[in-house]
Design brief:
The structure holds 2 protein chains of 2 kinds. In chain A, helix 4 runs antiparallel to helix 5 and helix 11 packs across helix 12. By secondary structure, chain A is mainly alpha-helical. In chain A, 82% of the residues lie in helices and 0% in strands. Chain A is built from 13 helices and no strands. Chain A has a single domain, classed as ABC transporter involved in vitamin B12 uptake, BtuC, CATH 1.10.3470. Helices cover 35% and strands 26% of the residues of chain B. The two termini of chain B are 21 Å apart. A 6-stranded mixed β-sheet of chain B has the order 5-6-7-3-8-9, sandwiched between helices. Chain B has a 3-stranded antiparallel β-sheet with strand order 2-1-4, with helices on one face. Chain B has a domain of 115 residues: Rossmann fold. In chain B, a hairpin with a 2-residue loop joins strand 1 and strand 2. The chains are: A mainly alpha, B alpha/beta. Chains A and B meet through helix 7 and helix 8 of A and strand 5 of B.
Chain lengths: 289, 247
């Protein structure tokens, strides 16, 4: 009974195994990226960045058809270009960075949809916007696994400067260290994860598996490292549960996985140990001093 | 008397408006100097200029300090960030272990001592978002202690801080002076400046006066500072005082 529901789908169907490995790879690197996105107060900018991959992926599609390398490379370049451009716009004009990100991503989304409609069908558009987790091939798996490796090793390497740059940016600057280098390295890793995620979850939801587990973890952890350690299993669980539910209920996998992560977020919001509703509404017992 | 910092005709502009205008002054070494002046007088900007953090600097800043420690205004730090008191303090030894090295036993030992010295023993593992403003300022002072700098720049160290904490932190500052470190603090409490800081630099975008506090904080100087700070001309002509780039 348990076996039939929980394991058999993976034992029996190759596409389910691939999907599981793919989402686990995305979750392991992405959840750590998500933690830093929220600590840098960049959640919405991350969202904008993910949308901005679209025109690049679309150009790749236009030139190479539904080929993963072409679309991934296009998406990566478009993401980096958007991050740099909106950073530059914010620095050289008085517009706020969030506004410049919003302007950049709306432009990108419109261009992207337009390019795809030049050559592709509505199905192609749906695939690119919402992903096709059950159709990942070896190439895509390799891309996702390499991304997870590069992300974890890269984040471990720049962990300390990145934490200090988030928490007290002037501190590094006062010692003559350019913290912005770490900011841009982090942005590159974030874009890389979104590119890897877009094959599975699409440009519109790639951030779901990155951001939601991290937000959920922030209701439990009191330090950056523990937040990362909590976010990863939440992302794993959302992926596995989401795949199984979508398999048994015959629902599209991407949205179900993201909704699972949302449920973890809601649960943490209600019952977490830090700043959750439970701690707000609990009977006001105070300590003796 | 040697100078720890020598400002030669320093102008710092934001969007072409000068925040600090043609300031020349010397900050004596191994002494305590207060920078005073009305809001918007360029006090914080001047500190940032010494650190090399100001956007556009004209003129020349000579600084003989080997190592500079800087206490920013609290608003510049994300106090909700999930980091412990101990880790925050240990960052003061960044110059030893950098971004990638490990902290030595000595560094960890000294961090514990610094936390004790600011009266926060037992707080090591507390996340900083559970601290009061005064406790957090003690944490930042513990970090300054670890930095072992010969020039310490403090930007409004006592803003919104109770008198007992101020007294405790002043004791640390006086200890730095005894150890021949140069201390420069942006302050608003004139009584405190007169009591504790032998030197002062009165700023209102331009330098009003600098030297012994008794002379600098005269009623006449303070009146001039207020009048100058209130003058802000959107249509001001470009300043054509020639900028001396090097002596």
């Amino acid at each position: 009974m348990l076996y039939e529901h929980l394991l058999q789908p993976f034992v029996e169907f190759g596409f389910m195994r691939r999907a599981l490995v793919a989402t686990l790879a995305l979750a392991s690197g992405g959840s750590a990226i998500g933690v830093f996105l929220i600590l840098r107060r960049m959640s919405l900018m991350g969202d904008a960045l993910a949308h901005a991959l679209l025109p690049g992926a679309a150009l790749g599609f236009l030139l190479g058809g539904l080929s993963l390398p072409a679309m991934s490379l296009g998406g990566f370049l478009a993401g980096i270009a958007t991050a740099l451009a909106s950073g530059a716009i914010a620095r050289f004009s008085s517009i706020r960075e969030d506004a410049s990100f919003a302007a950049a991503y709306l432009t990108a989304l419109a261009i992207g949809v337009l390019i795809i409609s030049l050559r592709g069908s509505a199905v192609d558009l749906m695939n690119i916007l919402f992903g096709a987790i059950l159709a990942v091939d070896d190439m895509a798996l390799l891309l996702m696994a390499s991304t997870a490796t590069v992300t974890l090793v890269g984040l471990a390497a720049i962990y300390r400067p990145l934490v200090v740059e988030c928490f007290n940016p002037g501190f590094l600057a006062a010692m003559g260290i350019r913290g912005s280098i770490y900011h841009y390295l982090f942005l590159a890793l974030a874009v890389l994860n979104m590119v890897a995620g877009f094959q599975a979850l699409g440009t519109l939801m790639a951030l779901g598996l990155i951001l939601l587990p991290a937000v959920a973890a922030s209701f439990w952890a009191r330090e950056v490292w523990s937040m990362t350690l909590i976010a990863a299993p939440i992302a794993f669980a959302s992926s596995a549960i989401g795949l199984l539910v979508s398999f048994h209920a015959g629902l599209p996998s991407g949205p179900v996985i993201v909704l699972c992560a949302s449920l973890f977020f809601l649960g943490s919001l209600l019952f977490g140990t830090r700043a959750s509703l439970r701690t707000r509404l609990a009977r006001p017992v105070h300590l003796r001093g | 008397m040697t100078a720890a910092v020598r400002l030669v005709d320093v102008t710092v502009t934001y969007d072409r408006h000068p925040a600090v205008h043609h300031v020349s002054a010397e900050i004596p070494a191994a002494e305590m100097t207060a920078i005073v002046g009305p809001n918007g007088a360029g006090k914080s900007t001047l500190l940032k200029a010494v650190l090399g953090l100001a956007p556009r600097i004209e003129g020349r800043i000579e600084c003989s300090a080997r190592r500079i420690a800087y206490l920013p205004q609290q608003a510049e730090i994300d106090r909700s960030f999930p980091i412990s008191v101990f880790d925050t303090v240990l960052l003061g030894r960044w110059s030893r272990f950098g971004g990638f090295g490990a902290a030595s036993h000595a560094d960890i030992h000294d961090a514990g001592h610094a936390i004790e010295a600011v009266g926060l023993a037992g707080f090591e593992r507390r996340p900083i978002d559970t601290l009061s403003v005064g406790q957090f300022q003690r944490v930042l002072f513990a970090r300054l202690l670890l930095q072992d700098a010969d020039l310490v720049l403090l930007d409004e160290p006592f803003a919104a801080i109770d008198s007992r904490t101020v007294a405790d932190l002043m004791r640390l500052i006086r200890r730095w002076r005894a150890e021949k470190r140069t201390v420069v603090a942006v302050l608003h409490d004139f009584d405190q400046v007169r009591r504790d800081f032998p030197n002062a630099l009165l700023l209102a975008r331009e330098l009003i006066d600098s030297g012994p506090t008794v002379r600098v904080l005269s009623a006449e100087n303070l009146l001039r500072a207020r009048a100058m700070a209130e003058a802000w001309d959107e249509q001001a002509d470009a300043c054509d005082v020639p900028v001396r780039l090097s002596a």
